[in-house]
Model the fold of this input.
Amino acid sequence: MSSQAVATSNKEDLNLLNIVSTQFDKAAATMDLDSGLLAQIKTCNNVYSFHFPVKTPDGLKMYQGWRAEHSHHRLPLKGGIRYAPDVDVHEVEALAALMTYKCALVNVPFGGSKGAIRVDPWRTSVEVLERITRRYTFELAHKHFIGPGINVPAPDMGTGEREMAWIADTFEALRQGELDSMACVTGKPVSHGGISGRSEATGRGVYYGIREMLNDELACKRAGLDMGVKGKRIVVQGLGNVGYHAASILVKEGGAIIVGVGEYNGAVWCEDGIDIEGLHAHRKKTGYIQDFGGYRQLDDSLDCLEIECDVLIPAALDMVITKENAPRLQCRILAEAANGPTTPEADAILEARGDIFVLPDILCNAGGVVVSYLEWVQNLQRFHWTYSEIITRLESRLEEAFERVMNYAHYRKTPHRLAALALGIKEVAEVKMTRGLFP
Ligand code: NAD
Done:
């Protein structure tokens, strides 16, 4: 074999669509389902891919956007919108597929979808971002890729309440007088049809997942951990919406200690604990986490993944845990707040090690879609749940899903990721078999 061929064969496949496809195949292999039905579930139904012009201070610029609709087994479809400079169609399709299995796993009656625009939100002015968002919404509306009964976006990496408010406002302008138009998107500000607790919901769900795992006697015994969240040492990569809220709730409600935080421009580390609220406020003001609190510093965000801790929370990018760094992880629980943070080869290494419990993404970060569902219902029904009613519903929905995954994994002797995926796939299969096939 030539040296180039060896180098190529040693390289890990870092295409998220291939990774999700491999995960699907592994989960499907543990199930007794017709291969045609499985192919139907796995395949992405359609993708709208488009370019659009936007006026910027530097002249007219072309932007590229996507909305992938993975499964129409339930309507509307649901999934976030990602703004990132390097996002591509494979990533969008992969994330849409994960949404299908996630919604099915936590029993939220939506099909899976995802959207993205190739833009760097951190280096683009607010005015241009607003124009991009409104034009993107118009394109989706024009092609029937958005609507309260069709497809309902939400925030994802690089987007938040602000973008969701612009989307709602644009859609309402196009559908004047339609009472339910506010339900075209979730994750809106409370002042504009949003729901209390949505911005923290994904991070709160991450907390519930970790808490449930640490309340499980068998899991703690096998991980060599004392039971309970109190005093557990946590490292979080990504201090954005999900990472910040997860860390904050773990400290405030669980009594955990944050010992490491990674951001795109570096990481900080302190065994005695990091003041997460102070660090977050400092980052909001300055854009940096390094020059706060006198904590030890690491130059590369990836280094924070290898800090010795009880719980590691990747809450930023996908594919950060690879075959290269998986042998060096020093956590006992890997709580996947980000979508697709672990490659299949890294999964195999963690499985062989047997000393790290994985809380898989579609379970760990499902809190957002549960509360998005409540927001959608609230907009359609024109009533309001209180904050505590929302949190109670979120908590019980996730506890129930956690228990099902743990039981499935235990009795089938299957890794948690495959258990979660298999339960999601099973639910989609049941809906598809009940509905039958047209024509
Ligand atoms: P966000 O944009 O609010 O935060 C992402 C954070 O990661 C930012 O602070 C960013 O600076 C940081 N980051 C970027 N590159 C990094 C790097 N190389 N190393 C370390 N940090 C880096 O996004 P979010 O909404 O918090 O989403 C984070 C992850 O959670 C994504 O994988 C997303 O798909 C997933 N997720 C989000 C939601 C939600 O409700 N927002 C729901 C489910 C899953």
About this structure: The pocket of nicotinamide-adenine-dinucleotide is lined by residues 80, 155-158, 202, 237-243, 262-264, 301, 315-317, 337-339, 365, 368 (CB under 6 Å). The radius of gyration is 21 Å. The first helix runs from residue 3 to 10.
